[in-house]
Write a sequence for this structure.
């Protein structure tokens, strides 16, 4: 690519310094502009990397959840296996509130003398709320007694709120709207510092995703709830897709609470489940501006949303169960089911988890990920109906009830069209993203909600007589972004979300003129010293590290793909073939050809890539377990987020330990989910290796630690790798037994 | 992966045949490779996913493909491919024009030593560095001038933090040009 020899003589040949100077200036300008452009390109694809890995993690989570729900609904594993996972589906809402208040009672919890955090008395005052902020700024933790009390009061208040908050900017009040915070306390403190804390003169709307990923999710919640209690007419909270206990299992909030509140964490989490379900779904300002977390779809109907019973949706990922109206009522999932199953052994299929023979496929739109294993479940429709009919009559015979409604045997028999419609409305609201093209398509990347286009926005705004939608849900480099002819504003308030320097956060102020005024910021003083170029470099290194790990985790499949391009088995492939192979295996929509020079630095003299060598170059040290099968290890590593999530589900008492037997069952679950054969022997070997002290139980954290890969190249690892999908790297607070 | 010393003659022959074959095909595959690279770069700026980009991004795209056009070169290129002053450029026109640029090495990179000489020309007192004011004067008044924003960014990015001067030799080395281009 050289430009020849002549140019280097130019400076000496030309007469007149002026001409030389101009030429020199031009060269430098051209070179610098080129550099800036390349940096911009790198920034874009770095972003791309983080986003696609993030969204594919969400998709995996939803798939996992759908899979578990499917198992629950469609066949009857032995009671052990079922109990492993049934509890996350159990609604338990039949108990009356009085019973719940007993369960959540904080009164017996004593606060020891040495506790140095804040003491709260109710009703809460603004001084206490401000004091709470100060305490958290000083790294104090709120005692579980006060936390529970605060949460109880919050729950009581939220139950009185409508699904859609309606507020106004009358009295010349400017309303401040904040987007995703994701447990990043530093950002909330920065917002309060710049903008002032909530007050009668300073109303706030917080647009969801307060928790997960960051390490101070519970503190953020407590602050927001405290201000909500003090200023109920001036603080508004919208639910986000992360205000959901199923999502929390994977993305760190569950773990954070259990770590910080070792004794009462489980209760706190249960209470939070209820609180999340009672969070309002949206806020409308001056009847013109709609604020909600995710977005809309072509079927979003605000009237429907205003009418439904939002608290039935404990998790947006699962439709609500209709309660059996009979007076012998306990939870649908627990005792009643045992009786039914017990009495119906004739129809009971003792399918073990490794060979499911379910009764029928769900046809629900939202379970399209189940297409993955639809080839295992092709059942004749008539057979299915026949089976159901037989079950129903058997059930009736047993219960001696005239009631024709059956217990939950499959989705269809229980959920009316109405319930399905409501559920879809909520899912769309919390999970959708805008797109540039017109129309509305399912959001397959995340696994929930839709992508909606500018025409949908236009129709929706006209239909409801609105002028602007403010939503969050997506990280933006500047903290905000307009789209759809400035009719949709995305607002994201967690700065440095992907890594130090990756993005700014923003909040919006809205006065009576309803013109959004955006304020940007970036937490951490380190940032100011980094230029944009430097922070791109940092973030890029981070992204590439994550990407290298993903590649390493798919080593076997990649080698297979490379071999297809290398029929002569020479061990090398061309650069172009490399890109094609990687593309076909990784299923991440990334510009591999552009990333190639970052990921492959060694080429043979012919310009080919030695792919075996390349895996060494990826410079990842594998886990240190010699007697475990390599491909099993690779699977473990690749699906560690899913594995950890299943562990936490299985760990019903939230102790952080699971028994060996449960461990084996977990593996069976995973092997079905992944459609892999894992022999009992392999599992036993694995189990023996992991349970090093041979006491019959496995420490989940230790297990996950063992399978964390370390990157040789990175010496400056910040220890915050959200894209492992687990919270393994959260700063482990030594749980204070006094709290 | 076998090293050259321990591969059998049969494998060596196969490998050589492979190379020869691929050299014959190299023009074809090379073209396909070039097309894919151009498309990848283009798509990064195709926000509406409709195979068009804003004309203002064309410079960035061309630069990122390893080319060093002057501003005049850019204007000419854009004039060729823009859709009737619509402000947008379609992939259908960009692809052939850009392919030609790449295959013919139309806007070659600036060699390091030439760049160094350029800085030395501006460094009239041979100090080994440039003061921000000096550089600003040249960049904003001579050649294809920078905007104020560009200038500020350049200074922030290139100036040594402590001394607040630009050590151009270091800068040239740090901002290494992409080896793959």
């Amino acid at each position: 690519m050289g430009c020849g020899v002549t140019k280097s003589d130019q400076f000496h040949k030309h007469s007149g310094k002026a001409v030389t100077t101009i030429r020199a200036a031009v060269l430098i300008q051209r070179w610098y502009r080129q550099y800036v452009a390349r940096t911009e390109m790198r920034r874009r694809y770095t972003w791309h990397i983080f986003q696609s890995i993030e969204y594919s993690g969400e998709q995996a989570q939803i798939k996992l959840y759908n899979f578990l729900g499917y198992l629950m609904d469609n066949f009857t594993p032995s009671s052990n296996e079922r109990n492993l996972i049934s509890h996350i589906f159990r609604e338990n809402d039949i108990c009356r509130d009085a019973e719940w208040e007993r369960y959540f009672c904080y009164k017996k919890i004593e606060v020891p003398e040495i506790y140095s955090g804040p003491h709260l008395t109710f009703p809460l005052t603004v001084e206490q709320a401000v004091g709470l902020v100060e305490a958290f700024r000083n790294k104090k933790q709120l005692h579980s007694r006060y936390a529970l009390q605060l949460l109880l009061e919050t729950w009581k208040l939220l139950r009185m709120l409508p699904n859609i908050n309606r507020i106004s900017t009358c009295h010349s009040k400017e309303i401040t709207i904040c987007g995703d915070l994701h447990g990043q306390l530093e950002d909330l403190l920065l917002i309060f510092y710049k903008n002032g804390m909530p007050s009668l003169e300073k109303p706030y709307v917080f647009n969801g995703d307060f928790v997960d990923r960051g390490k101070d999710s519970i503190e953020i919640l407590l602050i927001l709830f405290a201000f909500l209690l003090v200023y109920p007419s001036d603080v508004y909270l919208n639910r986000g897709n992360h205000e959901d206990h199923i999502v929390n299992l994977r993305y760190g909030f569950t773990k954070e609470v259990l770590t910080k509140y070792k004794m009462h964490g489980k209760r706190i989490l249960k209470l939070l489940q209820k609180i999340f379900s009672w969070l309002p779904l949206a806020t409308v300002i001056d009847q013109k501006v709609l604020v909600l977390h995710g977005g809309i779809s072509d079927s979003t109907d605000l009237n429907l949303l205003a009418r439904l019973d939002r608290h039935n949706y404990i998790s947006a990922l699962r439709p609500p169960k209709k309660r059996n109206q009979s007076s012998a009522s306990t939870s649908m999932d627990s005792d009643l089911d045992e009786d039914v199953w017990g009495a119906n052994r004739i129809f009971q299929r003792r399918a073990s988890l490794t060979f499911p023979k379910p009764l029928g496929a769900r046809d629900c739109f939202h379970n399209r990920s189940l297409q993955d294993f639809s080839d295992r479940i092709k059942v004749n429709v008539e057979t299915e109906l026949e089976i159901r009919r037989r079950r129903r009559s058997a059930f009736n015979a047993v219960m001696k009830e005239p009631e024709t409604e059956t217990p939950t045997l499959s989705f269809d028999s229980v959920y009316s069209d109405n319930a399905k419609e409501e559920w879809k409305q909520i899912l769309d609201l919390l999970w959708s993203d805008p797109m540039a093209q017109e129309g509305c398509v399912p959001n397959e990347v995340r696994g929930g909600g839709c992508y909606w286009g500018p025409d949908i926005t236009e129709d929706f705004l006209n239909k409801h007589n609105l002028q602007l939608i403010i939503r969050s849900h997506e990280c933006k480099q500047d903290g905000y972004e307009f789209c759809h002819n400035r009719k949709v504003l995305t607002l994201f308030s967690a700065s440095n979300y992907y890594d130090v320097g990756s993005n700014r956060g923003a909040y919006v102020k809205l006065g009576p003129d309803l013109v959004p005024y955006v304020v940007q910021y970036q937490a951490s003083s380190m940032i100011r010293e980094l230029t944009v170029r430097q922070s791109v470099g940092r973030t890029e290194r981070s992204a590439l590290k994550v990407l290298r790990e993903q590649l390493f985790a798919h080593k076997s499949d990649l080698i297979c793909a490379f071999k297809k391009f290398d029929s002569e088995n020479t061990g090398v492939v061309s650069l172009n073939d490399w890109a094609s192979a990687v593309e076909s295996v990784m299923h991440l929509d990334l510009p591999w050809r552009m990333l190639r020079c970052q990921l492959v630095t060694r080429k043979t003299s012919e310009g080919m890539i030695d792919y075996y060598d390349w895996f060494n170059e990826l410079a990842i040290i594998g886990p240190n377990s010699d007697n475990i099968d390599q491909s099993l290890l690779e699977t473990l590593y690749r699906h560690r987020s899913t594995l950890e999530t299943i562990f936490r589900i299985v760990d019903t008492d939230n102790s952080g330990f699971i028994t060996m037997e449960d461990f084996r069952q977990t593996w069976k679950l995973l092997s079905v989910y992944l459609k892999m054969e894992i022999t009992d022997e392999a599992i036993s070997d694995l189990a023996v290796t992991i349970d090093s002290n041979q006491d019959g139980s496995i420490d989940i954290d230790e297990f996950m630690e063992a399978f964390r890969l370390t990157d040789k190249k990175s010496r400056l690892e910040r220890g915050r790798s959200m894209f492992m999908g687990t919270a393994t790297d959260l700063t482990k607070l030594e749980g204070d037994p006094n709290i | 992966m076998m090293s050259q010393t321990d591969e059998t003659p049969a494998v060596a022959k196969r490998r050589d045949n492979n190379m020869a074959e691929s050299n014959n095909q190299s023009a074809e595959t090379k073209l396909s490779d070039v097309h894919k690279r151009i498309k990848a770069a283009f798509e990064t700026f195709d926000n509406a996913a409709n195979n068009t980009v804003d004309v203002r991004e064309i410079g960035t795209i061309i630069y990122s493909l390893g080319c060093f056009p002057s501003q005049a070169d850019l204007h000419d290129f854009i004039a060729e491919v823009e859709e009737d002053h619509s402000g947008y450029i379609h992939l259908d026109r960009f692809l052939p024009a850009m392919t030609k640029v790449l295959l013919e090495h139309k806007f070659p990179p600036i060699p390091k030593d030439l760049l160094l000489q350029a800085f030395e020309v501006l460094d009239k007192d041979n100090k080994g560095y440039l003061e921000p004011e000096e550089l600003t004067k040249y960049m904003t008044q001579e050649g294809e001038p920078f905007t104020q924003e560009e200038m500020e960014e350049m200074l922030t990015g290139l100036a040594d933090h402590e001394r607040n001067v630009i050590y151009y030799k270091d800068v040239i080395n740090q901002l290494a040009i992409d080896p793959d281009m």
